[in-house]
Specification:
Elements (H helix, E strand, L loop, with lengths): L1 H17 L4 H13 L8 H7 L5 E3 L7 H10 L6 E3 L15 H10 L1 E2 L9 E2 L4 E2 L4 H14 L16 E2 L12 E6 L10 H22 L3 E4 L2 E4 L5 E5 L6 H10 L4 E4 L8 H14 L4 H9 L7 H10 L4 H10 L3 H14 L7 H12 L1 H6 L4 H20 L5 H14 L5 E2 L7 E5 H4 L4 E6 L15 E4 L3 E8 L4 E4 L1 H26 L2 E11 L2 H8 L9 H5 L4 H9 L6 H6 L15 E6 L27 H5 L6 H5 L3 E3 L32 H7 L3 H14 L7 H13 L5 H6 L2 H8 L2 H8 L2 E13 L12 E13 L4 E7 L5 H10 L1 H15 L3 E8 L4 E4 L1
Parallel strand pairs: 1-2, 3-4, 5-6, 7-18, 7-19, 10-13, 10-14, 11-13, 14-18, 20-22, 23-24
Antiparallel strand pairs: 8-9, 11-12, 15-16, 16-17, 21-22, 22-23, 24-25
Helix pairs in contact: 1-2, 2-3, 2-4, 7-8, 9-10, 12-13, 14-16, 28-30
Amino acid sequence: MELTARFQEDYAREKARRGVLDFSDLEHLALRLLTQDGDGGPGPLARYWSGRFAEVMVDEYQDTNQVQNAIFTAVSDGGRKLFMVGDVKQSIYRFRLADPTIFLDKYRRFKPWDQAAEGEERTVVLTRNFRSRPEVLEGTNDLFRNIMSTEFGELDYTQDQALAPGAAFPPEGDWRVELDLEDLSFLGDQEEGERADKNLLEARWAARRIRELLDGELMLTEGSGQRRAEPSDVLLLLRSPGAVLHHYIRALNEAGLPWSAEGGEDFFASTEINVALSLLQIVDNPRQDVALIAALRSPVYGFSGDQLALLRAEGEGDFYSAVVQAAGRGDQACRDFLTELEELRFGAGDRTCRQLIWHIYERTNLLGLFGAMDGGQERQGRLLTLYALAGRLEEAGCRSLFQFLLRLERMRQTGGLSLSAPGREGGGVTIMSIHRSKGLEKPVVLLCGLSRRLNRDDLQRPVLFHPVLGVGPRGLDRERMVEYPTLARKAVARKLEREMMAEELRLLYVAMTRAKEKLILSIPLRRGAEKLEKLGEDLSVPPSPMALERQQSVGGWVLLHALARPEASALRSMAGLPEVSPGTLGPAWDIRWVDGAALAQIPEQRGRFADLPGESETEPEGLREALAWHYPFSLSSQTPSKLTATQLKGRSLDQETREEAAPAALPPQPLSILRPQFVAEERGLTPAQRGTALHLAMQYLPLDTDTPERAAAELERLVSGGFLTPQQGAAADPGQLSAFFNSPLGREMASAPVCRREFKFSVLLPAEEFCPGLEPGEEVLLQGVVDAWFETLEGITVVDFKSDRVSRSGAAARGEEYRPQLEAYSRALEEITGKQVVRKALWFFEPGELVLL
């Protein structure tokens, strides 16, 4: 009780100080009680728990972090009663702060069990593998014995690390490790769509290879006998499936293969889920127009677009009221809908979410309707997944319909929902990431995506951190305004890069050891012979750590090893490489060169839509003309109905983001909506916010503010009046502001009979002025805010203020980038005032330079 009270006191104190605590915070609180005491000895929890355990055993110890390691040590009598089980070669969670060096340190310090003295720390090496065929294990040993070392991989792959076969398999069949190199040289040097083409072609290779294995009646071991391989025996592994998963799904569908995958598509974007959620929403509250229209338009009720438009035109109030009014006028479809909706709503409060969903499925025949559509099994699977999700949330305390819908909306917005994309009946080929596959096994494993470039984005962050080396910042020369890498940054980046490569190497090990009987590796090469020739410069057995570090992908590591094998002589000959001494290599690999051009051809459809009876070979009359028809006004359909002047200036982002932060006509409130004021106080204003401050000041300052002293006084007045926040007032430079009013342009604007500042406009203009090629008569709404314009005897002068950081010599070139924006302002003012714009002026605050366009 005393320990519990102390923990609760610490927890309450930290929660009051920081507001919210996550799991890692609780870890640290527990660590404090375990390891801290007034005399520097073990904490109270450590003294309590160390006497309660005969011994402590922790599995997967290679994935622990420093906090967990300290806790385990504290509760096991200083580590004397701690038994750790793990394999550092399978430590693949560094991104979750797992620290494999903890396990490595113990592995290197502890003596072998038969050499350690009584009570001394010791290691027991377990090398026997009871999962995979000898060919898979020896192929994995062979690769990692040559490429994994302390210099590259943080560990020497010695005999203690090698896998020894422990299971018995029939010897019949060709079970060699297979390496397929897809030659995609026909893609040439194309850039647009190159990555998509490459991924799709590799996916088609994988689908065809799986089809070959299944059609070839591959026999797998099961118990003491054998059976024919099925699609569910195949595991397709990818490093990061998300971006390329749709290619593999498409290829498997083309080959008529069933599949299952996680994250195969946006769960909430599917039609059937949207219909189900719409029905749930109107059961909860029918006065929701979007949900109600979606339900009416769905296959459940089948209202057409014309019917819905007529309901809206003839009804008053919200859309539900319009439906009720139509039912009162005798519309039978609306009557039937309202009757069914009332039946669904009656008693909904007495049902749990799961019960209500099943009641809706039965009452509306939702499973039957979507099951009869194309991809019906997948659609039914998603609906059943929604039903199962309701059960999961119900067990977590989410029982009411409103709570369930609110939780789903949060999941939709945050992406916090991980659901399996349902495959076709029978499970089928499993598509999975390497991280999720850890601990699993499959008879046949295809490892794809090995040519994917290693991700070094983390090394480009402004400040790098390492738990041992510390901080690696960039150097900043404030006078020249340039950044440069410091020695500390280079050291930290080098260390982080090596750790990243070691992690990727361990991921490769985990992937290869998932296979029980057949392991197939895939490496697509866009310039096959050229790539092999370049690898030949570093060809040796084993490859040097420096050569491995130079590779841009995991596939490069595999190729450096494979090219030195005797069975790769044909590849070496093709690339013009000399023969190499094979060194010490294990059993032969099955290395294949695949012609990628055949993969570009869309395969003949297999599966339920292939070979349908009654197909006619005669081409229907007019079919080609119908398929070749193009909508004559496609350009009009792609033209936006509204444009802003910012969109016309030819730059993706204005450095000021002026229009997006345009002030209102009334004095703005001090509190920023886009950025909390306390953040601005702590970190200062961003460049965009400083530009906004200058524009606000230019909107309210008197036109005769021609000295810095007066500008400073006026800024204080604007701050005290709430026109500017204190931060904005401090960010506006009085010297820069007065420089404009003291310039010839500023004095001319002050003496002009008509002067308008922050002039907002919306004007309809011919669309062909902005989108050449459109049919005459099309119009577009042009909107924008003109910083200032004034009228003289000659005509109108348009003025636009810019806070871009630019030199005097570069102001003219920068001004040209804003020409389309100024021309749009001019065109709008001429249309509105009926007068001619004679000058278009840009004023750059930073150099105090005027540019006339």
